[in-house]
Amino acid sequence: MPTDIDLLRTACERDLGDPEQWLSSISYPNSLALCVIDAIYSTGARYVTVEKVVGRYRDHRTAQGGDADSDGLTELLATMRELGGPDPWASQIGNRRPTSSAANAPLKAQAIAEVAEALVALGIDTTDDLRAVAADDERRARARAVWCATPGQRSGLTWDYTLKLAQIPGANAGPVVVGYVAREIGTVDSAGAAELIRGVAEAAGWNAIELDHAIWRFESGRPHQRAS
């Protein structure tokens, strides 16, 4: 009798095509600054707006003689101090989207600042630091807790997305991917879906993060294969 991993692998082979042709996920393996910016600005927004923010941050750092693609959180926080805080940073680099639709919700730029400060206080400045923390269950849980305590981040969705952007394995699956897995094997939560995806990837010799991304693109109705 086929296992859940067998059933999910069959569905992936049916729907996703040649893994060599999957569109690669966006990632910033050497820049925790860009991971945090992208993750927090991505929620409730078209991704083109996130690309514009990332582009402005890169341009700003280049003008300073820096390199956004190797920035840690210390460098990110320095740009906020130099511009006068999260509010002017939002106007000049980010955008003025709030963390939620609640009245007087803080800007996403404020959430970025709070997340960065909280992680730095835990000794997490770079993606290498985050990898070390992610490998330790206790430290990982502590980091996730301070992240989720930040306005608009309670669900942990942006925490998991940050791990994916940093190319760190072990993140929970997002709602779209959970929906795909549940349709194929039955009710499953985000942690269970992620575990099944890792099981399929291991069995098939695929990259688990790229498989998650391919499922997300397919289920979202986006192209998931490179044009031939």
- β-strand percent reads under 5%
Q: What structural class should be given to the helix and strand makeup?
A: mainly alpha
**Can you give the mean pLDDT?**
96
Return the domain count.
Answer: 2
Number of strands: 0
The end-to-end distance, rounded to whole angstroms, is 37 Å
Question: Unreliable stretches, pLDDT < 50, 5 or more residues?
Answer: none
The general outline is globular
Roughly what percent helix? Answer: 55-70%
Largest sheet: none
Number of alpha- plus pi-helical segments: 12
Instruction: Report the radius of gyration as a whole number of Å.
Output: 18 Å
- Give the ordered list of helices and strands: HHHHHHHHHHHH
Outline:
The longest helix has 17 residues, at 47-63. The chain is mostly helical and 228 residues long. It has helices spanning 4-16, 32-42, 47-63, 73-83, 86-92, 108-121, 127-134, 137-148, 157-165, 175-185, 190-204, 208-219.
Can you tag this structure with a few keywords?
single chain, 228 residues, mainly alpha, 2 domains
How would you describe what is shown here?
This protein has about 230 residues and is mainly α. The chain has two domains: about 5-25 and about 170-220, no CATH class; about 30-165. Helix content is about 60%, strand content about 0%. The chain is built from twelve helices and no strands. The protein has helices at about 5-15, 30-40, 45-65, 75-85, 85-90, 110-120, 125-135, 135-150, 155-165, 175-185, 190-205, 210-220. Helix 2 (about 30-40) runs antiparallel to helix 6. The model has no long low-confidence stretch (mean pLDDT about 95).
